[in-house]
Amino acid sequence: MIDDKNIAKARQRLLKEVTEDALYTADWTGRKTFSAPVMKALEVIPRHLFVKPEHAAAAYANRPQQIGFGQTISQPYIVALMTDLLDLTGDETVLEIGTGSGYQTAILSRLAARVISLEVIEKLAFRARTKLHQLGCDNVDIHVADGFDGLPEDAPFPAIMVTSAPQSVPKVLLAQLAPGGRMVIPIGPPHGRQILKRCTRTSSGSIKTEDLLPVSFVPMVRRKSEN
Q1: pTM of this prediction?
Q2: CATH number of 4-215, picked from 3.40.50.150, 3.40.920.10, 3.55.40.20, 3.40.50.300
Q3: pLDDT on residue 225
Q4: Which residues contact 136 (CB under 8 A, 6 or more apart)?
Q5: Any idea of the CA torsion for 87, 89, 93, 98, to the nearest 10 degrees?
């Protein structure tokens, strides 16, 4: 049974676990703690609204969950880590590749001026758009589009987050990264060794890439033709 009292307890337990995980993985990520705004977003965004109703009681467990269509809602620790790695100041437009449930989108919406999110599965995009509207996340735009193409008409972006794993870093997305911009992306084969990377465009225009942490994400796929 999920109620306000149980949710409050579960959220506090989750925050404690994420804090412990951050410390445990600091040798890989370089981050012993995550910023206060990131942790606050993790606390206040109602994760149980982004999972299947039958999974709501376990929504604040620190693990990924299935959301249908072969997709998952990421582990809260990974959501917090990837968000923290973007080093958002609050005035950025963030490009998110892979809306999924909309949970990561909601977290980003609290920390950025605008979030543009691309999703290849139309039904997931519609569902996420509805949830985010209900929560008042009015700085979010969701497009049904191929993430491999990015969004050149709105580029360059100071921050890009990719929530599924291509086998190599898409050059098109790197080209849409602004000077000083950061992209956080998992890279690797489906069901194989994947690494979370952070790519930063330096002031000279070159790309600095950091390998951070072993991860497991669903593969990044092209949008299928509806014809």
Answers
A1: 0.94
A2: 3.40.50.150
A3: 54
A4: none
A5: 40
User: What is the Cα Rg of the chain in Å?
Assistant: 17
Whether cis (ω within 30° of 0) applies to the bond prior to 156 is yes
Residue from 74, 101, 109, 117 carrying the catalytic annotation: 74
Residue 74 a catalytic site member: yes
Domain ranges within the chain, ordered by starting residue: 4-215
What is the amino acid identity at position 163?
T
Q: What local confidence, expressed as pLDDT, does residue 33 receive?
A: 98
Q: What pLDDT sits at residue 227? A: 37
SS3 for the chain is: CCCHHHHHHHHHHHHHHHHHHHHHCHHHHCCCCCCHHHHHHHHHCCHHHHCCHHHHHHCCCCCCEEEECCEEECCHHHHHHHHHHCCCCCCCEEEEECCCCCHHHHHHHCCCCEEEEEECCHHHHHHHHHHHHHCCCCCEEEEECCHHHCCHHHCCEEEEEECCECCCCCHHHHHCEEEEEEEEEEECCCCCCEEEEEEEECCCCCEEEEEEEEECCCECCCCCCCC
pLDDT 10s digits, 113-161 = 999 999 999 999 999 999 999 999 999 999 999 999 999 999 999 999 9
Which residue stretches of the chain have pLDDT < 50?
226-227
Q: Which residues of 46-66 are buried (b: 16+ CB within 10 A; e: fewer)?
A: bbbbbbeeeebeebbbbebbe
Structure tokens at 39: 């942790």
